[in-house]
DNA sequence: TTGAAAGCGCTAACAC
DNA sequence: GTGTTAGCGCTTTCAA
């Protein structure tokens, strides 16, 4: 008779063959019942399902992956630089949302910080390919990736958190320019006749462009533009500069929450009051913006929506050659840092 | 002749057979060369390695997983409750450190928030098992897990972030009691004759016990103990209570950074100054504690060390029956929230 | 509607 | 030292 269920302890997992035997059918029928692919007689199907339940059978995903070329898994590559990505609540929220979206579709997620240079990313993509990963979401860092090289690996990929749209690259990103316009307009609506900018100062950076354009359009003096990387330290340095000015700008648009948090700290230290002396609006709308002091008014990126769309874009891709950029609008979340709001 | 390399585009990945053919050896020799397991003549090995390089061959991990029962992958289960785990920088840092430790060992990581109840965790462990995951790190939430049930799944697991040591459970955790002692002593060293506590009020909670014992040992009045869950909102509520007191405690020990952040916000709102009116020390030492205002003095958990140990514990496990709790000491990181430090 | 059998790519026991 | 071969558990023709 062979071994019956051994005493408690890590027992061997049931395989498709065990199920088939117990249901008195062939292996194939088990597959048909479970995955479809061929019609199965009602009675047969019931016996199979019963056997599955009795045995607590669960298909071996490794075997499935080998045979079908799909591990039912997605990969997420986050930029691993001098600033730990996971210290950025925006990425953290994004990663979380992607995992949730993948799971809803029955996919698992490999998530890994990777240096954002071409070679490292290629290595990681290759590793994913050997694991039969179905698609990879890449959050780029500094430096750009050559789409052709990545394509040649043969694994579907999609670029997240895109700032500059690129031909031949399937990508997803927030409407940075539109968000910057929202933020700047709001500061101006508060009555400020001068708005400063802290962030990446580059004609091609949409947040910078949005701020610039809005100041010009509304005939408002553009306060100084202070350079800052997207982290707290750099924002702090900019904040110190602001505090040291003879005539500090009464309104500041910071290109990310992290920058704003740094600015905030510097102003606190120098006894400059936010929002009384300086009104501040930032970008991202991550949860950290909510528990800062004062809480930050910020342009909230539609993270869940973008995550959902990312997973869908890669999983539902039909024509591999139809590549495009998908842009998502954010909304301004009003809190305390921009000043008191009057009823409209 | 068959097909030669097709024009650029996702080409078929080379398999072990391709390498064998090109090197003029059998499949087995390729395996021997790559994995060891049998001696290979120097010259042969060189030819194989050359072929591997020429073809850019990388072993198919799905096939490996099927054959060997190991996907070279670890799983990390985070508690998914009403409070999103990824809003807690402590978990975020921990997850990041675990991923890095796993990667250093050549392992990938599945990371997933999961409701911490028994059924959900079992389901997830089973899913991991079908994917031939080599071991799972479980961060428990509310409610306890039955080790016997988890063991029966047959996949090695380890409990992280452990508060209460349990027999029969392999686990890792910080020295919470020792940390609470450090924090409380420090507040007392600042000259305060009364120290309050905000956190979980339970005789079995080590942070609570450490605070209690230290106050008694040093003959200091223990200020009120205010209940709080481990999140910002709850800390905020406690902070409001503190601010509303006739005679607020001059020193507070908060059981986590998140709690402290909430307390801080409440005190700000009520115009209570930290550290002048209230000195504050918290627990965890996550990065968010550094950019709060004022920056938090906090007991830093040795996250990297614990992550490293977690991965090692599960991968280097020899005797599956030798289970124990591994405890790690934290250290007090001095910042501003506890008050000015005089030279020792 | 069901079954037999080939094969995904790799490993390892066994033979030479 | 090297080759042959039998699977790991599953999917999928192809036949019956």
UniProtKB/TrEMBL annotation, chains A, B:
Which UniProt keywords are present, listed alphabetically? DNA-binding, Transcription, Transcription regulation
Q: Which domain of life is it from?
A: Bacteria
Name the InterPro entries on file. HTH_LacI, LacI/GalR-like_sensor, Lambda_DNA-bd_dom_sf, Peripla_BP_I
Chain positions covered by the region annotation Disordered: 1-20
- Give residue ranges for domain HTH lacI-type: 14-68
What Gene Ontology molecular-function terms does this entry list?
DNA-binding transcription factor activity; transcription cis-regulatory region binding
- List, alphabetically, the CDD domains matched: HTH_LacI, PBP1_LacI_sugar_binding-like
Q: What SUPFAM superfamilies is this protein classified in?
A: lambda repressor-like DNA-binding domains, Periplasmic binding protein-like I
Quote the protein name from its UniProt record. Answer: LacI family transcriptional regulator
**UniProt source species:** Labedella endophytica
């Amino acid at each position: 008779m062979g071994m019956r269920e051994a005493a408690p302890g890590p027992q061997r997992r049931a395989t498709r063959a065990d199920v088939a035997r117990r249901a008195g059918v062939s292996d194939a029928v088990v597959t048909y019942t479970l995955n479809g692919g061929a019609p199965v007689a009602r009675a047969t199907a019931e016996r199979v399902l019963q056997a599955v339940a009795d045995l607590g059978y669960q298909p071996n995903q490794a075997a499935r992956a080998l045979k079908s070329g799909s591990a039912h898994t997605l990969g997420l590559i986050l930029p691993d630089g001098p600033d730990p990505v996971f210290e950025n609540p925006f990425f953290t929220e994004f990663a979380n949302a992607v995992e949730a979206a993948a799971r809803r579709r029955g996919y698992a997620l490999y998530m890994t910080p990777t240096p954002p240079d071409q070679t490292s990313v290629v290595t990681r993509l290759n590793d994913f390919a050997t694991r039969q990963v179905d698609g990879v979401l890449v959050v780029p860092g500094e430096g750009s990736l050559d789409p052709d090289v990545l394509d040649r690996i043969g694994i579907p990929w999609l670029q997240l958190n895109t700032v500059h749209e690129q031909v031949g690259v399937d990508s997803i990103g927030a409407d940075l320019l539109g968000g910057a316009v929202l933020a700047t307009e709001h500061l101006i609506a508060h009555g400020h006749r001068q708005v400063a900018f802290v962030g990446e100062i580059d004609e091609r950076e949409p947040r910078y462009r949005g701020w610039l354009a809005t100041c010009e359009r509304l005939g408002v003096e553009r306060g100084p533009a202070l350079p800052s990387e997207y982290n707290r330290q750099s924002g702090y340095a900019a904040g110190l500069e602001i505090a040291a000015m003879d005539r500090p700008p009464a309104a500041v648009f910071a290109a990310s929450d992290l920058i704003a948090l740094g600015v905030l700290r510097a102003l606190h230290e120098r006894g400059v009051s936010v929002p009384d002396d300086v009104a501040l609006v930032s970008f991202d709308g991550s949860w950290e913006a909510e528990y800062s002091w004062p809480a930050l008014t910020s342009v909230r990126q539609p993270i869940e929506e973008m995550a959902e769309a990312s997973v869908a874009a890669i999983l539902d891709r039909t024509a591999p050659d139809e590549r495009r950029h998908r842009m998502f609008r954010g909304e301004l979340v009003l809190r305390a840092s921009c000043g008191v709001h009057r009823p409209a």
